[in-house]
């Protein structure tokens, strides 16, 4: 069983690693991942050996809080928001109070700089009293996290802060209370109350700004959650009552009026309307709905009033599933994050060793005594090393960008299932489109119609021929029949819409239909039917048939009284945005393929309209997966004729292949590709197998997804460069590497400021994705 839930109380990437290790040790847990960026845990466990209560207890024992289902009538998301608001409020209070105390402590610690300060404030015992609230009230969370880590044989950034500030406070406490004894022993009488207080204040200030910035990384989920209606007009026992959305049940009949939000997913049973689905699909144009059509919860009813039956409620609605998938994607770990995770695992122990080494080198080598200069420099440099080291920036570099990137995609109808799909989408070099329902609209339409020029001599009119077609075809369930009826009904008016009386209707499997209309025999079907029934041919229509057949269209011959009187051409028409999408992909140097079960002629006709030169035709549904694998692993040796293929280097590594499809038979191919992209109109199986789902049903979103991936990865690389660069450069500076050249040492207070700024800068850089055009 797999579950995800929020965690409150994490302060750095090391906290996430600590919780992760603790969860993995819990009986029944097979896999656990904790994201510091999204503050979420994703756990796979055996329900027979463990449950949510066990997981929650394991996290509580580590000093953190898990927010799981069933704790309250409120959702985990609402509880998390409440906890974060309280945490932010508490942080703000601590920052203000500790800032006031730290100001007085700083003034009292340097009377030579601030001569206006009363002498009482410079008294070491007064400074001690002012420091205690900052050290043990404002900074108590550092001690809690450190103790929790020590119990579990782990260390985090809180450990570094607790050790650094405790060293400064502890030494100052000794020099204040045991001054005569230390002076007699040759120790320098120095106090570092200001150092400890200012460091804690600045780190808390940094965490406050970081928490505020991180709150915006999950704006997408908050927007989605706020879309949901609060109440529903449910019809029960013939009466309409208003009930909270939580009380709506499957098969409830619900009324929706103009301007109201649709409360849950369902199917219209009475009435019709135009519905704005933009908040879910990203498509701005309202969609007309009638009886039998599906409606999506949280979308807005624009015009009519209608009744619908609830089919999905609670966690099963499309909105709930979207929220769940976005949350899981934001919590997932991208491959590029692995290096940062490895470094974070060793970071704190290495920094502790460097801090000790810094003290030893500065204390022992330059001045071999307890002189003020040697000890003071060694002590302050050690504290600076402990404070400036920042695993937080490393921990935030990838997840914050993933959170903003997936949220940005969701706002545009691009649902990204996991971080890996988002990361590798920019590498796509080959993309395979399924034809039917993906590149095309998935339903045949009449594209052309022509008549025998001599129909008038036969005593016929165009309207009579069209009425005969409608009369026959409206009795057939074949998709081509429906397409012909829909096409011809438009120009017909009045009674002709219904067609004339029909007798002896017969569906001829594999050929067409026959019957008698107004006393005349009528045949509609393929060429074989015409030949079988010895229909008199028409040379002009035969020429048209040849042209349309070469264009890959399906032909329907119409004969009345054994004479060929009309010809219709039908085709699955290309989506309006298909050509533009293909052109943009080519401009991005992506090799585009089309795969279909159609014959070569039909396939190439559609491909030509779309601007695709690489075609895989006559491919059975079961073969799609193997064709994708061939593209990935067999150096493009498909055994299929292609025109102007871009494949030129057979020794290069297999390209990153994406597959775009919508049907059940596309699911294996979607799973076999590097990046599976499912159309939002597709089946649940297809969507489940894909890494990216286009809820807006717009093919241009394929290009948008690739652009979003490129932008997100660029931000991640910038974040990692900054995070690694910050630590690689500033830790040596804190150790005093510049002192021999400049005589300059890093003040621990400045180190605290730099450490806070590094985390804030990473989060701020990730938020730039919100303004990226996709």
Describe what this molecule looks like in 3D.
There is one protein chain. It contains 28 helices and 26 strands. The chain is an alpha+beta fold. The strands form 5 sheets. It has a 7-stranded mixed β-sheet, sandwiched between helices. Strand 2 and strand 3 form a beta hairpin. Helix 3 runs antiparallel to helix 4.
Q: What is the averaged pLDDT score?
A: 82
How many strand units? 26
Distance between the termini: 36 Å
**Which spans of ≥5 residues are poorly predicted at pLDDT below 50?**
367-372, 493-499, 635-652
User: What profile does the largest beta sheet have?
Assistant: 7 strands, mixed
Radius of gyration (CA) equals 36 Å
> Strand sequence of the main sheet, in spatial order?
14-26-25-24-15-22-23
State the secondary-structure class. Answer: alpha+beta
Shape: elongated
Strand content: 15-25%
Summed up, the helix count is 28
Helix content: 40-55%
Which structural traits does this protein have?
26 strands, 49% helix, 6-stranded antiparallel sheet, elongated, 774 residues, alpha+beta, 7-stranded mixed sheet
